[in-house]
Amino acid sequence: MTEVAYISIGSNLSNPYQQVISAVDQLKKTENINVIAISGWYFSEAIGPKNQPKYVNGVIKISTRLLPNQLLKELHGIEDAHGRIRNERWGPRILDLDILLYGSKVINTKKLTIPHLGMKIRNFVLTPLADIEPDLVLPDGSTLSSLLENSQLEEIVPILSGDTSEKIG
Questions:
Q1: CA 115, CA 106: separation in Å to the nearest integer?
Q2: Which of 50, 69, 78, 94 has the highest Cβ tally under 10 A?
Q3: CATH code, 65
Q4: What is the pTM of this model?
């Protein structure tokens, strides 16, 4: 049985634009994952410690036969292959892949929270998600359009063709 899931992708180290593109390429090659849609890419300020480079963020829609914990394991493997080091919460990162939604499931375990905690208030998640699924309804019944309308959203800037890593930071 396949399930639709949404994955946020972000990077602010080591040529971030290339990191996110490479992650999408790896996901396309991953068994039991089919990439259905890719949002636009955006520059955003870091939400953690200050004095970090800007992030490149986007969202992809996939269909998968993997269970949520299996999908998380695949995402961590891709992060690790890119050199991800997990030592500072909200610190700079070479690659960050998060499961935003997995079908209509609600999961709250020590390892995994779906819907992703904080996704409802993060413009760098909501805006790219709206690029690919503007009529999305979350498991709690809230609509993506209402979240965008009612939020005090931080500024993000669309990345235009040719406007990549050399203009970050």
A1: 6
A2: 78
A3: 3.30.70.560
A4: 0.91
